[in-house]
Amino acid sequence: MAKSKNHTTHNQSRKWHRNGIKKPRSQRYESLKGVDPKFLRNMLFAKKHNKKGLKKMQANNAKAMSARAEAIKALVKPKVVKPKMPKGPGCKLSRLAFIAHPKLGKKIRKYMAKGHRLLPTKAQGSNQAQAPKGAKAP
């Protein structure tokens, strides 16, 4: 039995794109001698116009990417410093600050209105405090 080779050169020219074993440049493409001239003209025309299409596509892609970048910039807003709520006895000021707050404004208005509805009015509280326990109202 003949010893088999590890590497063969048989039929490698057809597979030059796979194995890195390339044909010489002169043999790389089939000869176009004797080919129909009309077909040749069409082929060269198509080749030229395919390149045009590719260039257009690349230009469109670049435009689309720049437009996308601008859209993302517009959407991503810079971080705003959060307004701090005042703490302490200044009730009126804190109410105003809460109302002016971008996120808490709506909720706090509703909450404060509910609180005002539930609280007894000052007039009712003062009348009850003045009247003695055993006396009846006239």
3D structure, described in words:
56% of the residues lie in helices and 0% in strands. Helix 3 crosses helix 4 (104-118). The chain has helices at residues 16-19, 37-75, 91-100, 104-118, 122-130. It is rod-shaped. Among the domains are: 31-78; 80-120, no CATH class. By secondary structure, it is an all-alpha fold.
Summarize the structure.
The protein is mainly alpha-helical and 138 residues long.
Order of helices and strands: HHHHH
Rounded to the nearest angstrom, the radius of gyration is: 44 Å
Give the strand tally.
0
Shape: rod-shaped
How widely separated are the two ends? 135 Å
* Low-confidence regions: none
Q: β content, as a range?
A: under 5%
- Put simply, the count of helices is 5
Q: What average pLDDT do the residues reach?
A: 70
The share of residues in helices is 55-70%
Describe how the helices and strands are arranged.
Layout: H1 16-19, H2 37-75, H3 91-100, H4 104-118, H5 122-130
Salient structural properties:
138 residues, mainly alpha, rod-shaped
